[in-house]
Design goal:
Largest sheet: 12 strands, antiparallel
Helix content: 25-40%
Number of helices: 11
Structural class: alpha+beta
Strand content: 25-35%
Length: 453
């Protein structure tokens, strides 16, 4: 077992990109990015060179690859995705020094939507959207954490790691090849095909199969150059508090998500579902009108409340009885490109459950499936042309001390062998309009597409 992590103060910087750029080509490099200074997140987390990497295939089987001999070999037959994650966390010691920092060693990476689909028993007969694994997580025994409220930077690392990281940071950032598209983005569905699927959703709603379905479409383009250059362009166009970047081989994840999925801190659980979206106005007056129109929309409010009820049920499966509450219902949050209605659902984790138990119980997030969840996922698989891969899954971390923070992987670009894939979706209810909903799928990702073009 690795020795405990210690904390070393580093010079503070408000720019995680310059810091991460020096490490980005190291094995397993990952950036969880709060979007500062434009967005409102508090912490950036940077790490690389994990002790082990866990990948989950499209059948739900887990594979652990150790890097070096710092870890014992995993037990034979450990191929269950969540059991394998729990075993990896057990290989790191819990730091003995108390710290308010969110991450002091543990798992970081992503969990794809299809991991949740498999866990919920929803089979798919659609082709895979990408060759990315269904989940990819590293076990990290060090991290750099930037705290933008206290204006501090910390290196949490074992003594051996600390010296290595300091040396890595002294090296110049590698040059990046300019990014450019070599073929424009093309939508997987025409507006007419979307309308056909919309009509089928409405028939399911009228028949009582579901109350809401999140229907998405994918756009794909070809590119050349450096994915890191692309991420920097995306971040300038749309800074968000739950962004992230990771790249390996010919694959990468570039996420600019505004939505938290699940956070656990000292046993307190929080999820912040987004339902209801309007584009920002071009002037202060039109922007105010857009915001007020969203706040007064009965349709958007009903859509949000449905998902709040679903998430209250998901949290209730692993939280203490009577601890689940909704301190904010349909509050307005504004981002550089859109206004959103955001609710806050909180609870207290039951003493018999872990953050991984919570993630497994609630995954994937109800805000991107619909209600009821399992029937909604079955309809999504029937109507969408391919599987979702990471889209509508999560990026984030699970800390060895029992803390966790994850996003909903919307506004996310996936890189696979020279192709870019980005999805836009929205929740359909009984009084939805096909033209409006189709436009919303494009509005949500328009700024990403323009930044890459």
């Amino acid at each position: 077992m690795s020795p405990p992590l210690t904390l070393t103060a580093l010079p503070y910087t408000r720019d995680p990109l310059a810091l991460f750029a020096r490490l980005r080509r190291r094995h397993g490099a990952v950036l969880l990015d709060s979007g500062r200074p434009a967005a409102t997140g508090r912490y950036d987390i940077i790490a690389s060179d994990p002790l082990a990497t866990l990948e989950v295939d499209n059948q739900g089987r887990a594979y652990i690859e150790r890097h070096g001999d710092a870890l014992a070999a995993p037990p034979t037959g450990l191929d269950d995705a969540f059991a394998a994650q729990a075993w990896l966390l057990e290989q790191l010691p819990v730091p003995s020094t108390p710290s308010e920092l969110p991450f002091c060693g543990g798992l970081m990476g992503y969990w794809g939507y299809d991991v949740g689909r498999q866990r919920q028993g929803v089979l798919s007969h659609k082709p895979a959207a990408t060759r990315l694994p269904a989940a990819r997580l590293g076990l990290y025994d060090w991290a750099i954490i930037l705290d933008h409220e206290c204006l501090e930077a910390w290196l949490a690392a074992t003594p051996r790691r600390a010296g290595q990281v300091i040396q890595w940071l002294e090296q110049a950032a590698p040059a990046s090849a300019p990014f450019q598209l070599t073929a424009p983005f093309r939508a997987e569905m025409s507006q007419a095909k979307y309308a056909e699927r919309f009509a089928r959703v409405q028939r399911y709603i009228r028949a009582g199969d579901c109350y809401q379905i999140n229907l998405a479409q994918r756009l794909t383009a070809r590119y050349q150059g450096d994915e890191w250059d692309a991420y920097c362009r995306l971040r300038r166009a749309t800074p968000t508090p739950f962004a992230g970047f990771m790249a390996w081989d010919d694959k990468a994840v570039m996420s600019l998500s505004p939505e938290r999925f699940l956070q656990v801190s000292e046993g307190r659980v929080e999820t912040r579902p987004i339902k209801g979206t309007r584009r920002r106005g071009d002037t202060p007056d039109t922007d105010h009108v857009q915001a007020q129109t969203l706040l007064q929309s009965a349709k958007d409010r009903a859509e949000n409340v449905m998902i709040v009820d679903l998430l209250r049920n998901d949290l209730g499966r692993v939280c203490r009885p009577h601890s689940v509450r909704v301190p904010t219902l349909c509050g307005l949050e504004s981002y550089p490109n859109v206004h959103h209605l955001v609710s806050v659902v909180q609870g207290e984790l039951d003493a018999s459950c872990s953050p991984l138990s919570l993630l497994e119980a609630a995954f994937p997030g109800g805000s991107i499936t619909g209600a009821p969840k399992i029937r909604a996922m079955q309809i999504i698989d029937e109507l969408e042309p391919c599987q979702r891969s990471l889209y509508c899954g999560s990026l984030g971390y699970v800390d060895v001390r029992g803390r966790m923070d994850t996003s909903i992987a919307i506004r996310t670009v996936l890189v696979d062998s020279g192709s870019l894939h980005v999805w836009g979706g929205g929740g359909l209810v009984a009084d939805s309009s096909p033209a409006d909903e189709y436009a919303e799928t494009l509005d949500k990702i328009r700024h990403l597409v323009r930044a890459l073009e």
